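Shape matters. As here.
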Amino acid sequence: MTTPKSSKVSDEIVDNMLRDIFLSVSMLRSLFNHVHGHPENISKCREFNLPPSNYFLLVMLKNKKTATMSEICNLLCISKSNLTAIIDSMIEKKLVKREYDKNDRRIIRIELTEKGGEIMEKAKIFVKQELKKEFEKLSETDMNNLYKSFKTIKEIFSKIK
């Protein structure tokens, strides 16, 4: 009988990381919701008519060009039924289009339209300006640490995937 290999990662570390990841994601969502829902910004956001989930989807499609429904569900952490409603709404607004895979019609690809790209770029400028206002509350050291931390997290997570 062989004994299991000891893990380099303790349960305590995983528990702490899990907690910190959820807290960080929650804080990031709060920041984006604050920017999006701040009373001064509501009229600006209405111009784009773009909830945060739609904005993230447009950014993803701008970078990726096309994505399957499953890929989007995984990225946004939502169910296919919820995503279908979001996509239908975005198709009505002519921000994205739905294409069936030529080789397998069961696969549905979502693509950014020209209008979706234009709206995303305008919204990106707005979000960037508002986030900059929030980040200016940080010291230069904190801002540099935050930037380096995000860069490190991205590099490390790319090794896991």
